[in-house]
Each structure stands twice: as structure tokens, then as C-alpha cells.
Amino acid sequence: MLPLRASRETIVTASTSSSAWAIAQARLKEIWGYSDFRPPQDTVIQALLQRQDALIVMPTGGGKSLCFQLPALMQQGVTLVVSPLVALMENQVKELRDRRLPATTLHSEVPKSERYRVLTALDRQQLRLLYLSPETLLSPPVWQRLCQPDLTINGLVLDEAHCLVQWGETFRPAYRRLGAARQALQQGRPDDTQIPIAAFTATADPTAQRVIREVLKLRSPQVFCLSPYRTNLHLAVQTVWTPRGRQQGLLKFIRQHRGQTGLVYVRTRRDSVELARWLQEQGYRTASYHAGLSARDRRQCEQAWLQNQVQIVVATNAFGMGVNKPDLRWVAHYHVPPLLTEYVQEIGRAGRDGKPAHALSLVSERSGLLDSTDRQRSRFFRDQAHKIRQQAMRLSQQIPPKGSLPAVQEEFKDGAIALSYLHSQGQLEWLDPFHYRLVSSRPPASATPQSDDGMTAFLYSRHCRWQLIMQQFGFRPKTAKQSRCGHCDNCRQLA
Q1: Phi and psi at residue 48, to the nearest 5°
Q2: I need a surface site. Which of 89, 130, 331, 447 has the fewest CB within 10 A?
Q3: Cα gap 114→110, rounded to integer Å
Q4: What is the 3-state secondary structure (H, E, C) of the chain?
Q5: CATH class of 18-225
Q6: 430: which strand partners?
Q7: Which residues pair with 331 in a beta bridge?
Q8: Using an 8 Å Cβ cutoff, are 205 and 343 in contact?
């Protein structure tokens, strides 16, 4: 068996006062109905109550949300929770409100009347948890409210922190400015004001952890890192030789799981629509899900899937976070992601009820001579990244050494993305979330990886696939027996 125990880079040694900890245990029982914490929830909560920066990597279903919700509810003032998706925010807030707890959310879909009510409650310090997207946090009306010196801010929590790594350079450049938020929020407040930052994610390998720490400017953070290994999750990779072979491989896999709910991941909106249509023609209740859908259509798709009105969702990586379906029995990667961390995040949505679940990856044969689908798709995304790099370098020659984001955005298309790329390369620093300065002496730092050798090794290796994942995440087996999981396709072939 592979290691299951938590591994922490830094062990929290300082203890919270006995009275405070007694209150924490009482609130746990009162609010959530649990008699005790699951490791390492107790040490994470102690670190946050002591106002320490923290980086927490815990598998899905490990109770991450409770780790920051409980300390927030025990303190005066508001804790800001930065979350990537509306569904994720609303689900957590609904659970808190059902328990009559002072939590709410702000995002682009909130009506004006509700937005005014939330901001008023914030001004009156009636909230304990405020969920926002990074874009909403840094929007002028909200940011101005948060900068008021008399507003008590207990901390900044980044939920699903891997999104900073995956999306920060291109898709959601606001993530790259979060590291300047703390210092800006502390200005005008008493000198002893501390606003700790805690980053939570289910998947972050050592490279991703470094990016998160550097971008957020974490100060001597306590680091908690649990193994991503799941005993109930069976992994398999199938080589396909033609586009039709890829379709047939998926169809065979679905038939093996007759009547079970599943999730198919693709890389583009077009693939999502076309593959969903093809599966519908095969007689399956299937829906397409991607970022191009309206908010209403996304919510309808999520609810239909959760209520089993739809058996299969064909989705881009926009789907999954905040959509908790414990009985999801399988995940298929029709197209694999470029990063192993993304893969682990996506397969982790299956089998959350602890029962057996299966994950299949379909991949072109390695030469790509007979089926160039994967190679062409990878080339497309590499070319897109190259265009962004070129645009950023051109922009660096045109903008002033010091300036503001609004001014750059007004003059240059995709100016925010270009600035984020320069930041990732160590050529720009944020003076605050809205003002930058170009630098030339700093070495490139915290660059977001676009692909990794770990994913390639995982797909084409004949060794234990779970072991390869574990090694990528920094875990090593203690014995030869632990080097094989026994429930991936490679291990089963050797059994």
C-alpha cells in the first residue's frame, strides 16, 4: 500500500490557549455536529487562530472548508475568502446560511439590490465570512470598502489555490495581483495589524506550492501536505490509434459502467459540444458544459447532473469545483490535461463517497503518426502561450517603467494578461493591486508551468501509476511493497 498518513513540511508546535481551543471544539460540535477533528484539521485551525500564514494541500473531501470557516466564526471581523467559481461560493454560503451563520458572497451574478445589502452589512461589520472572486475583490467599489481603516479584516483565504497556478497568467490575471493585497489592506490600519493569508487546495506539487507561496508572498507559512492517494480510485490509460478509435474507446468504457453517472473531460468548448452531441446520438443523456455558457445555463446543467436527469457531462476544466456529487462513479479524459496536478484534481471528483470509482485517460500513440489529435492540440496551446509571451515583451517596451493597470488596459488590448506574464517572469512587481513597476534585475520567478514531464511519464509508463503521482507530489514509498498500488492498469497486468 502507498502511504496514507499526512506529511507536513512544517509542524505546528505552538498551542492555542486552552480556553480558545475549548471554544473551537464546542463550536465544532454545535455547528457541524462532529465530536472531534480529523487530522490535520486541528493543527491547521490552531495555526489560523494564531494568525499565521499557511499553505494547506488536502485531498477533496478532507474537510478543508471547515479549517478556515471555524476560525473565521470564532473571531470578530470579516475573513475574505477568494474563490474561483460562483457555484463553489454559493454552495458553501448556502450551507453556512442554513446554519444561520453570518456569511455571504459577492460576484458578477449578484443583483444590485443584494450587492448593496452585502456592502452595507460589510460596512456595519455584520459579516464573518465574505466569499468573492479575485476580480470582485479587486473591483473599485469593493476594494474601497475593504480599505476603510475601521473595518476589521481577520484574514485572506485563497480557496482552490491551484487556480492561481493554472489560470493566473492568462485566463484570470487578477490572481497574480493578490500578493499585493495584504500590504495595501494593512496601510492606514494600526501598525500591529496582522492579516494572515491561508491558501487551500486539493492538488499542488512542489512546483505549484512554490508558485503559490511566491505570488501570495506568504510569510514563513505553516505547510500541511497530505497524500493525494485514493485507495478507491482505479486508474487506467488507453492508447488510441485513430480519432474513431478514441470515440470507440470512450463508448466501450461507458458501456462497462452502464447506468452510472460519469464525467468526460475535453480541452475546448468545440470538443465539449461535438462530443456531447455524438453521445446523445448513441442514446445517452448527455450535456455539454464550458465557460462559454451563460450563468443560467451552467446552473441548469449542474442541477440536472446532480439530480441524475443527465447521466454524462462533457466538460472543459470549467466544470467540477463546487459541484459535489459523491456518487460520481467514473471520470474519463477524452483529452488529457497538460499538468499532472490538473489530472489529479479532475479525477479526484470521482468516488467521494468512498466506494470504488474509475478513471480512464485516452491518449494518442506516442509517435502521433496515425493520430495527431493530441499533438495538434498541444501545439495549439503552446502557440497561444507563445503569442502571449511575444505580446508581453512588446508591451514591456511601450509602457512606462511605473504605471497603473487601468491605464494599460485602456491603451492596450489584453494588457492585464501581458502584465501578469511579465510578473511571472520577474520583470514586473506590483506596488499595490493596481500599480506596477518594471524591474530588470530580478531573475525569473514563480513562472506558471504550461506542461510537465510528469504527465508524459504517467501516461506512457509501465510502472505503478499511483506511485508516479505520489513521487510527483513529493511522497516516497518506505518499502518495495508500497511501490505498487494494486489497482491501476499497470499493477493489475503484473499481478
Answers
A1: -70, -40
A2: 447
A3: 6
A4: CCCCCCECCCCCCCCCCHHHHHHHHHHHHHHHCCCCCCCCHHHHHHHHHCCCCEEEECCCCCCHHHHHHHHHHCCCCEEEEECCCHHHHHHHHHHHHHCCCCEEEECCCCCHHHHHHHHHHHHCCCCCEEEECHHHHCCHHHHHHHCCCCCCEEEEEECCCHHHHHHCCCCCHHHHHHHHHHHHHHCCCCCCCCCCEEEEECCCCHHHHHHHHHHHCCCCCEEEECCCCCCCEEEEEEEECCHHHHHHHHHHHHHHCCCCCEEEECCCHHHHHHHHHHHHHCCCCEEEECCCCCHHHHHHHHHHHHCCCCCEEEECCCCCCCCCCCCCCEEEECCCCCCHHHHHHHHCCCCCCCCCEEEEEEEECCCCCCCCHHHHHHHHHHHHHHHHHHHHHHHHCCCCCEEEHHHHHHHCCCHHHHHHHHHHCCCEEEEECCEEEECCCCCCCCCCCCCCHHHHHHHHCCCCHHHHHHHHCCCCCCCHHHHCCCCEHHHHHHC
A5: alpha beta
A6: 436
A7: 263, 359
A8: no
0.90 exceeded by the pTM? Answer: no
Nearest to 156 by CA among 60, 72, 261: 72
- Each domain of the chain, given as residue ranges in start order, spans 18-225, 233-372
Q: Using CA atoms, how far apart are residues 180 and 429, in angstroms rounded to an integer?
A: 9
Count how many residues are written for the chain: 495
Give residue for cell 488510441: 240
List pLDDT tens digits, range 151-166: 999 999 999 999 999 8
Architecture of domain 233-372: 3-Layer(aba) Sandwich (3.40)
Assigned C-alpha cell, 29: 460540535
Looking up cell 507559512, which residue turns up?
221
Q: Do domains 18-225 and 233-372 have the same CATH topology?
A: yes
Q: What is the pLDDT of residues 118-173, one digit of tens each?
A: 999 999 999 999 999 999 999 999 999 999 999 999 999 999 999 999 887 877 99
